[in-house]
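tokens incoming
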């Protein structure tokens, strides 16, 4: 069992930046893939970014060049650096970890004003 807790969401103006953090309740070294999803009301959940234990990353086309996912295995934390934010990035962002099962955080709200 892994508990994931997101932080760092908030309100920001378009063009601004935020960094989301996801703290795990146990070592993430054994968790092969960690990442971030987001959900906007009325839309499907979208994979934003993921990172494997080896550091391989994957991004949604809509965030490539603006968002960066990283993980610090020593701190059991995954990050999502979000730059050049747009109003369409407004969503609840969820951290996930894929190990023996898929674990989800409760989400953090990101609101980008125009």
């Amino acid at each position: 069992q892994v508990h994931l807790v997101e932080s760092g969401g908030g309100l920001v103006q378009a063009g601004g930046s935020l960094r989301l953090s996801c703290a795990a309740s146990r070592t993430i070294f054994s968790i092969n893939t960690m990442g971030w999803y987001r959900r906007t009301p009325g839309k499907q959940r979208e994979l934003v970014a993921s990172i494997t234990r080896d550091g391989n990353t994957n991004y949604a086309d809509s965030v490539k060049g603006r968002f960066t996912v990283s993980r610090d295995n020593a701190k059991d934390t995954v990050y999502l650096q979000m730059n050049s934010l747009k109003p369409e990035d407004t969503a609840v962002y969820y951290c996930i970890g894929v190990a023996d099962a898929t674990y989800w955080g409760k989400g953090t709200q990101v609101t980008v004003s125009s």
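note: The chain is about 0% helix and 55% strand.
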